Amino acid sequence: MGPQTLQCVKLRLLVRFSVNGVLTVAFVGLKNIPVADADGITSAIFEMLSGYLNMEKDAVALKLVGFGCDGASVNLGKKTGVVKKLKEQLHEGIIDIHCMAHRLELAYKDTMKDVGLYKKLEELLTLLYSFYHKSAKNRSELKTIFERLGTATAIPPRIGGTRWVAFLLNALQVLFKGYKAFLLHMQEVNIKENQSGFCLIFYFSFQLQDSRCDRSAKALGICRILKNEPLIQFALFMRDILQLLVKISLMAQKATSTVADVYETLSTVMSTIASFINR
Fold first, then answer.
1. How many Å apart are CA 156 and CA 154, to the nearest integer?
2. What is the pLDDT, as a whole number, of residue 182?
3. Helix, strand or coil for residue 215?
4. Model confidence at 47, in pLDDT bands (50, 70, 90)?
5. Are 235 and 219 in contact (CB under 8 A)?
6. Residue 174 and residue 156: Cα distance in Å, rounded?
7. Which residues pair with 67 in a beta bridge?
């Protein structure tokens, strides 16, 4: 499924096929769906296959082996989902596949949702992104500090996104690449504002009205989190874990990957993670 708007939903359809044993993925097209229920999606699929590939239902029934999608109930619902309707209109042998990369994301988020240190780590990465994304002054000062340290500038990215595991790994890599510069900048902002005698800083006192007080308060709060040793150790551990999980995600997204390829990668990653217990 594509991006949703107030007016409609865009259906993105791709087909995967084999020619002389060579797997190929082809983009069929995009189609607006006024009503994104199972009936609307199923009808749109047949219309796109007919309009773009000149394949009517009889031809689709002869060639269609499986249907891959995310895990939304509108797609995989046992009684009224898209897959159920395809089986009713074509044949019962259609294999439904819940996108493996999507399942990995869901399993990862479900595993981490009650981990206290993980929530604090997300908070740190979000605060860093917000501190620099919303202020050209902060970015400029950070760039100057990187130049003083003789290293390439690294601006904290956001941690959300379609490929959530990869986005988080990127944010952690930037955190450690620029850790010294981030910490130095937060300390300098706090010292500079305090020396001006302009305001009294309260830890995370974001309700203060003056922008300099607000900036200094945020810098002090971020600085304290950056100095949290258990949290930084946990962040290093998470970086190691995410580097492995991203391998599974990328293999699952690869156009020519087979189930065997993903299974082999998954088995290797599981063995490596198990070895962390004795590290």
1. 6
2. 97
3. helix
4. very high
5. no
6. 6
7. 96
- Give φ, ψ of 173 to 5 degrees: -65, -40
| Confidence label for 201 from pLDDT (cuts 50, 70 and 90) | very low
CB count within 10 Å of CB 213 equals 19
CB-based contact 225:231 (threshold 8 Å)? yes
Cβ(269)–Cβ(247) below 8 Å: yes
Beta pairing, strands 9-19 & 95-98 = unpaired
Among the listed residues 260, 61, 227, 111, the one whose alpha carbon sits nearest the alpha carbon of residue 252: 260
Residue 4: strand, helix, or coil: strand
Q: How far apart are the first and last CA of the chain?
A: 42
Task: Write out pLDDT tens, residues 144-193.
Answer: 999 999 999 999 999 876 667 899 999 999 999 999 999 999 999 988 76
Pairing type for strands 22-33 and 9-19 reads antiparallel
What gap in Å lies between CA 163 and CA 279, rounded to an integer? 29
pTM of full prediction above 0.90:
no
Q: Where are the alpha helices (DSSP H) in 14-78?
A: 38-53, 57-63, 73-76
Q: How confident is the model at residue 202 (pLDDT cuts 50, 70, 90)?
A: very low
Long-range (24+ apart) CB contacts under 8 A made by 235-239 are: 235/121, 235/124, 235/172, 235/175, 235/176, 236/176, 237/276, 238/118, 238/121, 238/168, 238/172, 239/169, 239/172, 239/173, 239/176
Residues in the chain: 279
Q: How far apart are CA 17 and CA 179, in angstroms?
A: 46
Residue 13's beta-bridge partner residues?
29
**In this predicted structure, what is the pLDDT of residue 164?**
74
**Interatomic CA distance for residues 11 and 13, integer angstroms:** 6
Q: Side-chain half-sphere of 139: how many Cα atoms within 13 Å?
A: 11
